[in-house]
Design brief:
Blueprint lengths: L1 E4 L6 E5 L6 E8 L8 H13 L9 H21 L3 E2 L2
Length: about 90
């Protein structure tokens, strides 16, 4: 099991990367945007959100810096909405 942290929101999920389908095992934290999603939808939604910010790893430092700034802005925006929920 791997604890996976999203690049664009504060969600924390547990994933089994040892299988080809990368099985979702559960969650530790759902951010304010994703807190009402059913567990079965959480991993797919987070991956889709992260894909918006995916850029080629071609060594373009300016594109990477712009992308990193955009991801940080999105993370800050979501954090400002509220604390989300913890799975205790």
């Amino acid at each position: 099991m791997t604890t996976w942290f999203s690049d664009t929101c504060p969600c924390i999920i547990d994933v089994d990367f040892s299988v080809p389908q990368q099985t979702f095992l559960g969650w530790t934290h759902k951010c304010e945007i994703h807190k009402d999603l059913p567990d079965a939808s959480l991993k797919g939604q987070i991956i889709a959100q992260n894909a918006i910010y995916k850029i080629p790893n071609d060594g373009n430092k300016a594109a990477k810096a712009t992308n990193d700034a955009a991801k940080k802005t999105e993370m800050n925006r979501i954090n400002a909405l509220g604390p989300g929920v913890w799975n205790n």
